[in-house]
Design goal:
- The protein has 282 residues and is mostly helical.
- It has a single domain, classed as MetI-like fold (Orthogonal Bundle).
- The protein has helices at residues 2-32, 36-40, 52-61, 74-105, 111-120, 130-139, 146-150, 157-169, 172-180, 185-196, 198-213, 217-222, 231-239, 248-268, 270-281; strands at residues 65-66, 69-70.
- Helix 3 packs across helix 14.
Length: 282
């Protein structure tokens, strides 16, 4: 009887937690489906309205006025965000894989020192080193450019650590068999290691895609051209309406659109993500 009561209590708590987390998403949907007049009235509407398609059309096809200037359209900002996200994700995976491969399979002086230097960078996020990073980016002439947004974010200590630990966990017989078959370092990496780390790679794709999609502070700092703003920065700029009232309904519609790609990535790659994390725990 006690076990049954405990199980029911756990289920009730989980359902309550899900509702609490889902409520802001629901309110975003409600706000995106009402007119501006309805949102400014009290009480705030809790039931969806009839203006969802109209607000989505404005958010995707038309710019909104922010601080006296028109921002880029939602489609442009989505395109920018996709370019930035794919650049950061692919860059992190490639660099981390190569770094982990060198740290796991090559013997050179100071290898452990370099490994711990990589781990230490986990304590130094971009926000901590943002001033020297900005100075270097400006000196290279990369302000207001996609390379300027992407390049400072493509190194990942987390991905390097996960790949290295995965390589260390592989049986030594695989390396010996590859050497006997005459596989060189490049052939061994491409033909053997890449297929064997696909689940870890899938998990990292989900993590890094969400990181790149939600990147906010760095693009906000180095871009002044609205045509280069990602969707997160664009939503922030919608709040900066100057003397005019912020278009909350359009902003909610843009927020709703911005949620869709990360959700799709998580839903479509959920199985691979869980499998990759479980394999790392083993």
């Amino acid at each position: 009887m006690k076990d049954r009561i405990g199980l029911i209590a756990i289920r009730v708590f989980v359902i309550f937690a899900i509702l609490v987390m889902f409520f802001p998403v629901y309110m975003t949907f409600v706000g995106a489906s009402h007119s501006m007049t309805a949102l400014l009235k009290k009480p705030v509407p809790l039931i969806p309205g009839p203006y969802l398609l109209q607000n989505l059309k404005i958010a995707l096809l038309a710019g909104t006025r922010s601080a006296g200037q028109f921002s880029a359209s939602g489609l442009t900002m989505l395109k920018n965000t996709l370019i930035i996200t794919l650049g950061i994700t692919s860059g992190k995976l490639v660099i981390s894989f190569l770094a982990a491969y060198a740290l796991a399979y090559f013997d050179f002086r100071g290898k452990e020192v370099f490994f711990w230097m990589v781990i230490i960078t986990l304590m130094l996020p971009l926000e901590v080193r943002i001033i020297p990073t900005y100075e270097i980016t400006a000196a290279l002439g990369l302000l207001n450019s996609f390379p300027g947004i992407i390049l400072p974010s493509i190194a990942s200590a987390t991905a390097t650590f996960l790949y290295r630990q995965t390589f260390k966990g592989l049986p030594e017989e695989i390396t010996e068999a590859a050497m006997i078959d005459g596989a060189g370092p490049l052939s061994f990496m491409v033909r053997i290691l890449l297929p064997m780390t696909r689940t870890v790679t899938a998990a990292l794709i989900v993590i890094q895609f969400i990181y790149g999609w939600n990147l906010y502070l760095w693009p906000l700092l180095i871009t002044t051209d609205p045509g280069l703003h990602p969707i997160v920065v664009g939503i922030y700029n919608m709040l900066n309406a100057g003397d005019q009232q912020a278009e909350w309904n359009v902003m909610m519609a843009a927020t709703l659109v911005a949620m869709i790609p990360p959700i799709l990535i998580i839903v479509t790659m959920q199985k691979q993500f869980i499998q990759g994390m479980n394999e790392r725990e083993k």
